[in-house]
Amino acid sequence: MIFRKQSLQPDRKVHPLIGLLLFLISIALLLITGPLGFLYGLGHALFTRGIRGIGEYSLKIAVSIDQLGNVMMQHLLNALWIKKGGYAFGNRDETISSALGRNHQLGTLTALGRGIDAFLDLIDPRHSLNSIDYYTEPSEAVTDMVSWVEIENGRVLFLKEKGHPFYFLPGGERKATPSDALQLALYLKHLLGIDARTDGVTFLGTYESRNEPGQPTAILRQHCYTMPFVGRLQPIPAIEGPYWFGYADRHRLREADRRILDALHEKGLIG
Fold it and tell me: Which string of b and e fits 49-62 if b means at least 16 CB within 10 Å?
């Protein structure tokens, strides 16, 4: 899994001609310096780390080639390996295997895609699923959220927007702010009128699932935190709640929130 310091850094817009020029320069540099750099890298890895070093160096190159293939072959792979509405190949920081794993989770692989996935599993069990990377640059196929998990008497607090059928954890879209905790505190102040204490935040995990039908993205990703607060829960007029759901109520929730309740139940945090 790749950890990025700026997981919310968007692409910088570049003039098409500059993009073409940079592509030609990168190809020229690869052809001229690539072989020398590769041989030097092998020697350095062998001298400093032995056979293990060569294996680690080779793996890094393999991942980079996989990322290149994910961009270079994106249109072909999107046409042959996934169904309409699936998670698209083409994220430059993501490997082919990672995108394949996301579509495995979503059930959006075509017959050819499932065959490729099964072949990789024969070589390396759960290869595509284990390759899923939560720390890539933003993708238009993912809705990225920060969510508050408030547990009381073995139950979790949920809200519901008036006129909509789904319950949801308090929070909102993840943005490029100094921290998730500060962004989440702003959402809680707006939605519930409470003052969350960012000095007491605890990260519970990041959870991904298939988004609900009709939503603009294929995947919903939630970064979940607990945070103590001061004040009384007073939802804004457009919001209904709070609702308190335990593990036995999971059937009333979206797939994304059922997964979170499953994880909390496994940790013994809810009954």
Answer: eeeebbeebeeeee
Q: Beta-carbon neighbour count of residue 100 at 10 Å?
A: 26
Q: What is the pLDDT of residues 15-64, one digit of tens each?
A: 677 777 877 887 887 788 888 898 998 899 899 989 999 988 888 888 88
| Per-residue DSSP letter, 135 | S
Tens digit of each residue's pLDDT (9 = 90 or more) over 112-162: 999 999 998 898 888 888 887 654 555 677 888 999 999 999 999 999 999
Which pLDDT score, from 0 to 100, does residue 142 have?
82
Provide the CB-side half-sphere exposure for 78 (13 A, CA).
Answer: 15
Q: How far apart, in whole angstroms, are the C-alpha atoms of residue 217 and residue 34?
A: 38
CB 147 within 8 A of CB 170: yes
Distance CA 154, CA 247 (A): 8
Q: Which residues 6+ apart lie within 8 Å of 157 measured at CB? A: 148, 149, 150, 151, 169, 170, 233, 241, 242, 243, 244
CATH architecture of 142-266: Alpha-Beta Complex (3.90)
In this structure, the strands spanning 171-173 and 142-148 are: antiparallel
Strands (E), 211-245: 219-226, 229-230, 239-245
Residue 156: name the closest of 234, 232, 246 by CA.
Answer: 246
Structural domain spans, the chain: 13-72, 73-136, 142-266
